[in-house]
Amino acid sequence: MKKFTCLLSLCLCLFVCCKDDMEAVLQVAGDNRPELEKVLSHYRDEPLKLRAARFLIGNMDAHYCYGGKAVDGYYHDMDSLFAHKDGDRGFWNAQYDSVLNLYSKGMHADAGHRLYDVAHLKSDFLIASIDSAFNVWRRNWNKQYDFDVFCRYVLPYRVGEERPDHWRAEFAMSPGEVSDYERYTDNYSYAYNMANTRLQWIRSSIYYPSCFLPDFPLSMLGHLKLGTCKEYAHLCVALLRTAGIPSAVDFVPQWGNRSLGHEWCAVLLGEGVTIPFAPGERLGEHFAKRKEDRLPKVFRQTFEKRPESLRMIAREDEMLPKVFDTPCIADVTDEYMETSDVTVCLEHPELAGSRFAYLAVFNDREWRIVHWGRICGKRAVFKSMGRGVVYLPVYYGKSGMLRAGDVFLLDKHGRVRSLEPDETGGRTLRLKRKFRDDRSNQFLQSVIGGKFQVANREDFSDSLTVHVIPKLEDNRYHTVQLSYEGEYKYFRYLSPDWSRGNMAELYTFDAAGDTLKPKRLLGNFHVRPWCGVENLFDGNVLSFYDSHDVYNVWYGWEMERPGKIARIRFLPRNDDNFIREGEDYELLYWKRGRWVSLGHKKGNAEGVLTYDRAPLHALFLLRNHTKGHEERIFTYESGKQVWW
Questions:
Q1: Which tens digits make up the pLDDT trace of 83-96?
Q2: I need a surface site. Which of 145, 217, 486, 494 has the fewest CB within 10 A?
């Protein structure tokens, strides 16, 4: 093992200098070299397959999977569960948690046990993989793709860091499927339709792991019941490559205005056209459903070692962030959006400890690196950056990240705006939320036009509308004072069409301020699981009513006796990120590498926190120390919070 580790280090150094040197790869293969040479010899009379074999072997030294007892146990138990169990999402979350409790510590240790392809893959596996890839090549539906595209995005025997297996047999096209498409001439629209057909059956249920998870072998993914977005992306790529359709995994290491990163399948239709896909969608819908989510950078996982990658450019002794510590990564940001090159003035570049600086974005709790740039004097240039995102220049080394310059906004027009605070002036901030409001605002809009009604007949044929919900600015508790004649026995909320009655809390009060308690619940009870009328007065702002129906949705109750309602208090479905009465908040602003506090305040019934003498041009963060974890950076412009 020590011998192989030394050889691997040698190879890493060699492919930085001469990535196409086949001899360097064969040398690092050690005792496995004869197996790789068998593959080359096997195809000596088939020039195209020989080129394919040389492509795979020439890049094998960059690829590995994880070995160890814990990884083996995790694969075995999850595969058995997927193959023989059924259940809802709650069941599968519990199963996943149970398996991870058994193996998580061991898998963390196994993460250091890498099995490199160049030292372990045998000739029969590689030959079978190459032949099966060629079996679906040069068909009527994919003749328009050239051989280089085939090598990069159809031929590879792996997608990520999974344990290699014979996955093409698992997802092979049926004879009927082949004959259906053989009648098509070469045309990108046919490839599009075929990809859509192959992928349309997939439905995803996402699991967010709390620890390191090795990638599943691709053959396991055919009966996947719950997984990460990465695993569903791998499944989609496997299905497409099995049909000879070029595809890859693209990813954003960290969203530009929310937590987490994301991975998806990219279908490559040619001529620079890339269509992102995730299960449950039609091709092309993926980012149409994510209009509020911003991409700072997009990268593609490749099989070949990319000479422009940071790992190929950096010295072996230069420590790199994990996302860039691979040669198999390509920057494809320009395929997804308009971008800008950004030149950053650096402070104390001698502290960098390397030739590179980085840009980081905020993930709701801390800054995460998303791109790199070469240091030239006291500047660094960052290519093809996504717009509408706040960035922090940093250095990276053994001690982690170190601030390298001023935090700045790259606006939607590509202009750079410094967000370093001006503490010489001050202004008053009125804060209503601690997190971006696109989801909550969507729920808020759905109640506009909703009606509160009273009646003395149970079918509301004699109803009186006592209030119509007008346009509202903020999703929080709203109080309505009522004034009408007469006493009534029944009360209801009649929701606008298509809103499904989405309301989180609903209370009625008499003139003395006492709650009018329902005698009997009424209305539509064709509801989604755990989304009934009882949620309207359970005190939980995150539970809500949600009907299966979209027309004439209403709910309400019979009161204990006829009377008059003096006040209604309601809360639309929401994300619980508005200002809550009695909770402890702290406002901070970013100043030269750290968050500075402007003090703590208690939330009030009005749902507004007021801070005086806040600095100008600053980047802010509002923390809730009582509960919750969704907290987002913002600027304050024209009297409103603007989220980044």
A1: 888 888 889 999 99
A2: 486
